Amino acid sequence: MSITTPFRSELSPGRDGFRQLLHAEWTKFRTVRGWIIGLVIGLVVMAGLGLFTAGSVSSSCQASGGGPVRSGAACGLGFALGPAGDPVSDSFYFVRQPLTGNGTITVRLTSMTGLLPPATPPANQPSNGPLDTRPGVEPWAKAGIIIKSSLTDGSPYAAMMVAADHGVRMQWNYTGDTSGLPGAVGPQNPRWLRLTRSGDVITGYDSADGTHWTEVGAVTLSGLPRVVQVGLFAASPVDLQSQYCSGYCNGPGGPTQATGVFDHVSAPGGAWTGGYVGAGYASGVGSYHPAGGGFSVTGSGDIAPIPPGHGGEADSAITVSEYLLGTFAGLIALGVVAALFITAEYRRSLIRVTFAASPRRGRVLAAKAVVVAAVSFVVGAVAAAFAVLAGTAITHARGYYSAPVSGATELKVIIGTGLFAAVAAAGALAVGAITRRGAAAVAIVIVALAVPVFLAISRAVPAGAGDWLLRVTPAAGISLQQAYPRYQQVASTVYTPLNGYYPLSWWAGLLVLCAWTAAMLGVAAYLLRRRDA
Amino acid sequence: MEATIEVAGLRKRFGPAVALDGMSFTVLPGQVTGFVGPNGAGKSTTMRVILGLDAADEGTALIGGQPYATLRHPLNHVGALLDAAALQPSRSARNHLLWLAHSQGLTGRRADELLTLTGLETVAKRKAGGYSLGMRQRLGIAAALLGDPPVLMMDEPFNGMDPEGIAWMRSFLRQLASEGRAVLVSSHLMSELQDTADHLVVVGRGRVIADKSVADLIAAASGDRVELRTAAPAEAMTVLAHAGGTVAAVAADLLTVSGLSSTRIVAALTAGHVPFSEVSAHRASLEEAYMELTRESVEFHAGASS
C-alpha cells in the first residue's frame, strides 16, 4: 500500500456556537417562500379581521316616542364620558350648594336603607307598571358627600361615602377608589365623613366619633373651577341578581334605590338645592327632606366607570377586543408555519442533514424555537398595532365611539399579542417535533389554542367551564389582550370573554401559556434525543 | 485528527428485524473504500450510526477516534451524502448550502465555491425540488464537501446518474482519496465500484463478509485456474486430466484448468500433440467475486435458519 500524506484542509474552521445555529435556522426559515407567505397571511388575517369589523359595525336607534330610525353616529352615545374620555355612569341624587374657593364639608351618616326589585319576575307585571319592590340595599349602593366641578354628566369629582357592603370609601373621577373604615353603617356605628378643598387638592377623612379623624386619601382634580358644587348624595346601581326589569333597563337586573340619613351637617354656604345629576330615568325615586337637624337623601343610579362591552351600558362603544378579533385566525396561520418548520424536515429526511450538521439536537430545537418565536412576535405585535391604531382611526372617521385605552394599555396589548403569538408558535413547533407530521401537529395546535377560545366566547359551554378553559389551556394567553380593567366597584354583565374580559390576569395567562410551551419543548427535546433521526 | 472511520461490533434491531449483526470494519485515509452488499444488508443503517443519527444497540462507531456527536463543527470532519432527496423542494440549491454553511460558521462564499466545483453554478438559484436525481446527487456532494472534511461518506452516489455523471463521480472520488481523504462509498452494484475503489468491505445481513483490497479479492476469486482455448477440447481434457489437472468446459473451444500451472499445461499439450491457440491465467471480474461472496453468505444464513 502506498504511503499517503494525511489530508489537511486549508479551510479555516468556523465557530459552531448557538449563534451559528440560530443563523442557520433563520436562513432556513427565510428561504422557503411558502413560510413567508404563511406569515403574511397570518399578519393580514390578524390585522384585517378587526379592521373589517371596525369598518362594518353599525347600529340603529329610534327615539322612545317614535320618529325616524337613525343609525350609527346619529344615535349618540347613551352614556357620559368621564374626564379621561371613557364611558362613565354619572347619575345620583345631589343635595348641593355652591362652594367658592377653599372649604370643608363634614357630615355624619347614621343609616343606610334601600329597596331592591323582586328576586323573581312577578307574573303578569305590566312592563311599565309601578315597581314591586322589597327592602334591601344593593351591595354597591352609596351615600355620602361629594365635591363636583359642575352639574354636567361626567364632570370631575371627589367623594367620601359609605358603600353598603364595602365600608367607607373615597372615590374620585369615576375610576379612583380607596377604602377607609370598614363595616356597615347604622345608628350604633355612625360614620363621620369630611371633604376639604384646597386649590385643586381634595382630601377625604373619616371618623367613627367625629373627634378622631383619619385621612383616607388626597387627590388632585386639575383645572377645578373656583366655584364648585358640594353636598350630600345617594346613588344605587342596577341590581344584576334579579331578573326583573321594568321599562328602563335592558338585560337582566332591575333598578334599586338607597336612602342615607345624615346629621351634623356642616358646610360653609347657605341654601340647599336638591336634584338629579345625570340620566333622568331614576328621577322618580330621588328626594330629600330635613330629618332631625340633617337630611334624608334618597337616590338611584351610580357614579362609576362603565366597562365597555356588548349588552352593557356602553354597548355602542367599539372596543379594542373587537379590533383584535383576527388574533386566533392569525395564530393558526403562525402555528401552521411553526409546526411545518420542523415537520417538513422530517417529511424529506432533511432532519438528518440538520442533525449531522448539528448533533446537539436540543440546541437545534432551541434555535428553531427562537426563530419561530421571534418572527411570530414581530407578526403578532405589528398586526396588533395596526389593528388597534387603524381600527380606532376608522371608528373615529366613521363617527362611532371607540372605547378609549391609554397609550400604556395600547402598548401592553400590542406587546402582549406579540408575546402570545411568540410563545404559542414555539409551542406549535414543539408539537411538530413530537408528532413529526404536519397535519397532526396543526390539528393539535388548533384544538389547544383556538377551540377553547371559540367555546368560551360562543358560550357553547357554560360560562364557568368556559372560564376554566381560558385558565388551564394554552388559550389562557389571550389574557394578554385584555384592554379594559374589571372594576371591582362595578358589577356588570359584560365581564365575559366575548367582551374581552378574561379570567386570568395578563401575567398569569402568559405564565400558563409559557408552562404549556415549556412542557411541549421539554417532551420534544427528550424525544429528539431518544429517537433515531 | 486522523482521517479514519472505525466501526466495531455494531448491532441494531428494528423491532424483530436485525439490521446490524456485529458490523466491524475500518476505513483508512488515502483510498476509496467500497461498501458493497445487497439492499437491506445494513449499509445505510451503518452510515446513520456513524453519523450519530441512529443509535446502535451495541458497538461503537468512531471518526478519528471520536464519536461523531462529540465533534465540533462536524462538517469540517465528516462530509456525508445519505439521501440526495433530503431537500426542502422549494428552497434553492444555493440557499440549501447557505444554511448548512451558516451552521458551521462558514459564509456564502464557501457555498458558491462548491456550486462551481460541482458544476451547479448556473442552476444554483433554481428550486432544488425541480432538480433531476443526478443534479441532486451533485448538490449532496457539494453539501458533503462544504467543510472540506478529511472523511467522506456517500450512500449510493451513482444512483440516477447518467454515464457522463458516473464518470465524473468516479474521477472525483479518486481525486478526493488521492488528496489523503478517507472515502467510503456504498453501492449495491459492484460494477459501479470496479475502477473506483481500492478497498472493499462486502456486507450481507448486517455483517462484514469480506474486508479486502480489490486486488486480493479478485485473486482469491480467480483461484489458480488457467483458461485454455483449443480446437480439440476432448483431446485436451483427456491429456490434462492424465497430467493431474481438473478440467471444466466453459464454451465449445474454451476450457478452464485448475491444479496445473500454465507451463505444465503447455508442456502436456505439446507432448500429446493437442493443438491450442491460447493459454492464459483466469482473472475473475469483481462482479464474479462479489456474487460468489454474497451467494455464500445467503446460503450460510439459509442453512443456519432452517
Description:
The complex is a heterodimer of chains A (533) and B (306). Chain A has 533 residues and is of the alpha+beta class. Helix content of chain A is 36%, strand content 23%. In chain A, the strands form 5 sheets. In chain A, strands 6, 7, 12, 13, 14, 16, 18 and 19 form an 8-stranded antiparallel sheet that branches. In chain A, a hairpin with an 8-residue loop joins strand 8 and strand 9. In chain A, helix 2 (33-56) packs antiparallel against helix 4 (327-347). Chain A is elongated and about 115 Å long. Chain A starts with 17 loop residues before the first helix and ends with a helix. In chain B, strand 1 and strand 2 (17-27) form a beta hairpin. In chain B, the strands form 3 sheets. In chain B, strands 5-6-7-3-8-9 form a 6-stranded mixed sheet, sandwiched between helices. Chain B has a 4-stranded antiparallel sheet with strand order 11-12-10-13, covered by helices on one side. Chain B is α/β, with parallel strands linked by helices. Chain B has helices at residues 43-50, 93-103, 108-117, 133-145, 163-178, 190-193, 214-222, 233-242, 262-271, 286-305, and strands at residues 5-14, 17-27, 32-36, 58-63, 78-81, 151-155, 182-187, 199-204, 207-213, 226-229, 246-251, 254-258, 278-281. Chain B has 10 helices and 13 strands. The model of chain B is unreliable at 299-306 (pLDDT under 50). Chain B is elongated. Classes of the chains: A alpha+beta (533), B alpha/beta (306). Chains A and B meet through helix 1 and helix 5 of A and helix 2 of B.
List the helices and strands and how they pair.
The complex is a heterodimer of chains A (533) and B (306).
Chain A (H helix, E strand, L loop, with lengths): L17 H13 L2 H24 L3 E3 L6 E3 L8 E2 L5 E4 L1 E9 L2 E14 L17 E2 L6 E7 L8 E7 L3 E6 L3 E4 L11 E8 L2 E7 L6 E7 L6 E9 L21 E10 L6 E5 L9 E5 L2 E6 L3 E3 L11 E2 L1 H4 L3 H21 L2 H8 L3 H37 L3 E2 L4 H29 L2 H21 L4 H10 L33 H25 L3
Parallel strand pairs in A: 21-22
Antiparallel strand pairs in A: 1-2, 3-4, 4-20, 5-15, 5-17, 6-7, 6-12, 6-16, 8-9, 8-15, 9-10, 10-11, 12-13, 13-14, 16-19, 18-19
Helix pairs in contact in A: 1-6, 2-4, 2-6, 4-5, 4-6, 4-7, 4-8, 6-7, 6-10, 7-8, 7-10, 8-9
Chain B lengths: L4 E10 L2 E11 L4 E5 L6 H8 L7 E6 L14 E4 L11 H11 L4 H10 L15 H13 L5 E5 L7 H16 L3 E6 L2 H4 L5 E6 L2 E7 H9 L3 E4 L3 H10 L3 E6 L2 E5 L3 H10 L6 E4 L4 H20 L1
Parallel strand pairs in B: 3-7, 3-8, 5-6, 6-7
Antiparallel strand pairs in B: 1-2, 1-4, 8-9, 10-12, 10-13, 11-12
